[in-house]
Write a structure and sequence with these properties.
- It contains eight helices and 19 strands.
- It is an alpha/beta fold.
- The chain has two domains: about 5-115 and about 275-345, FAD/NAD(P)-binding domain; about 115-270, FAD/NAD(P)-binding domain, CATH 3.50.50.60.
- The longest helix has 20 residues, at about 325-345.
- The structure holds flavin-adenine dinucleotide (FAD) and iron/sulfur cluster.
């Protein structure tokens, strides 16, 4: 029986899970396909993170340092390509720059995360690939990080920006009926950052309904309106067209019940979360059940949030569905605890 836990994915959830296993005295190997740790917040150049506006690099840096200090073995640029055996004697084949190797492990934690919905896929109405000034949340994050929010078409700072919520989420037509959970908060956070960096720029958020759960209501939503004068408009956007050097945003103001047409310099699409390719691949390679959207299914909800359909395999973070960083830290820790408990559980002898 192997005493090692393999953690697949080195984003916020996998980092927390790996450190948790090591802190509990376990041996852990962390397998990450990229050449760096930190997951999507680092790969996509996120600027500041909710709710404290701490730079993403600083927050992720703390998690990464924790993993190194705990003595976790890290394999960068490695991917799991096959899995044989059963708990607690799995054999994973991992492939990396140096070729193939086998890892023997007693349990596996999947933390392969999410990817952003592609706004050009079934929602061409927003012209993401047609108009350079139509961007997605992660594109604006990268500009905010550089303190260089400019219209790609002119290189000049915008005077009017709007966010369009629920792009690729809560949409029955494309089969993503779920709410992606973070995009209302992230759009509001980015709106605040735009107002801070460009005080003369007017910022609007078009929403179906705002879903700021927990403390984000007071930490982000009200300050966005009351301190930073971001304007929230309840409305459905149906089209983004080019008119002269502006973008014409068309839709319906659902509070007033009338058609709406407004000119903007930049439109930011609040894209939702979908399972990453790695998450889809792991479901197949490890033989664990995905749900109908392709995220990993939890076997015993609601109180067991990390056990999968297969004994000895747990999942955490956004591989399980839309999640913010707090969810990732919580489920990463829970997966570490379950994995170590599984390896150390003594068989019960009945007299
Ligand atoms: C624009 C935007 C801004 C956001 N800002 C915030 C914020 O301010 N606050 C907040 O709480 N949340 C925010 N979020 C949500 C946050 O990004 C996620 O909660 C978090 O990144 C999920 O972490 P994760 O570790 O589960 O997955 P990820 O961050 O996606 O990490 C997954 C890791 O697994 C690796 N991987 C994938 N496949 C494989 C494979 N086959 N083998 C090995 N490794 C693999 C990836 O390379 C990656 O490193 C934001 C989301 C978006 C879209
Ligand atoms: S968090 Fe907001 S923008 Fe994202 S899917 Fe839910 S309601 Fe829509």
């Amino acid at each position: 029986m192997s005493e090692t836990i393999a953690v697949i994915g080195g984003g916020p959830a996998g980092l927390e899970a790996a450190r948790g296993v090591a802190d509990l005295g376990g041996s852990v190997v962390l397998i990450e396909k990229e050449g760096f740790l930190g997951g999507t917040p680092i790969r996509e150049n996120y600027a500041a993170l909710t709710p404290n506006m701490e730079p993403a690099e600083v927050a992720m840096g703390r998690l990464i340092d924790g993993v190194h200090e705990a003595g976790v073995e890290v394999l960068l640029e490695h991917q799991v390509t096959a899995c044989e055996g059963d708990a607690p004697e799995f054999r994973l084949t991992v492939t990396g720059p140096g070729g193939e190797r086998t890892i023997e492990c007693g349990g596996i934690i999947v933390a392969t995360g999410f990817e952003h919905f592609d706004p050009g896929r079934e929602t061409q109405i927003y012209g993401y690939y047609e108009h350079p000034d139509v961007l997605a949340l992660q594109d604006l994050e990268a500009m905010l990080k550089e303190h260089n929010v400019v219209r790609p078409s002119t290189g000049l700072p915008p005077e009017r920006i709007c966010f369009v919520q629920c792009v690729g989420s809560r949409d029955r037509q494309i089969g993503n009926e779920y709410c992606s959970k973070v995009c209302c908060g992230v759009a509001s956070k980015e709106a605040i950052e735009v107002r801070q960096q460009l005080p003369d720029c007017k910022v609007f958020i078009f929403y179906i309904d705002m879903r700021m759960y927990g403390y984000w209501e007071n930490q982000i939503y009200w300050p966005a309106q009351e301190e930073h004068h971001v304007q929230y408009i309840k409305g459905i956007i149906t089209e983004v067209l080019k008119k002269g050097d502006k973008l014409l945003v068309r839709g319906e103001d659902t509070t007033m019940g009338r058609p709406m047409e407004v000119a903007m310099d930049m439109v930011i699409l609040s894209v939702g979360m979908e399972p990453s390719k790695g998450t889809r691949a792991m479901a197949g390679i490890l033989g664990i059940e995905p749900n109908k959207y392709g995220f990993i299914d939890v076997a015993n909800p609601p109180l067991d949030t990390v056990s999968t359909s297969r004994r000895g395999i747990w999942a955490c973070g956004a591989s399980l569905g839309p999640a913010d960083l707090e969810d990732c830290a919580s489920s990463g820790g829970a997966a570490a605890m379950k994995a170590m408990a599984f390896l150390r559980r003594k068989p019960v002898t009945v007299a």
